[in-house]
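User: Working on a comparison across species. This one is Flagellar basal-body rod protein B from Roseibium aggregatum. Can you predict its structure so I can line it up against the others?
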Amino acid sequence: MEPVFLTKLVSNSNDWLSVRQATIAENIANANTPGFRSKDLEPFTTVISRTQLAMTATHDGHLGQTMEAARKSDVEKADSWTVTHSGNSVSLEQELMKAGEVARDHSLNASIAKSFHRMYLSAVKS
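Assistant: Here's the predicted structure for Flagellar basal-body rod protein B from Roseibium aggregatum:
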């Protein structure tokens, strides 16, 4: 049986979300600081894709370059919504939307971990 790394993935995702939440909080705290530029982390999918092992095609029917091409597709980053005359680029609306995304993703991770834990318990009880 292959080992299951779901708990490690959820843990890594929660670590990334914690750092992103701290970054968002820093942006909000400096919303009135002249010249402060809003910051954000690169997406978790980018971080995790760097650590994945490459799959080996051992048969002609296996997926090959099509998955690699999909993985390397460019994602455009949107700039901040507003830049004030002081050079500050923090948009409170945008930061609060990001904070909502982080809260939603934390909740999703907790639900996944809870479901996986229940699955383990049901397998052990059977």
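For your comparison, note: The chain has four helices and no strands.

User: Helpful, thanks.
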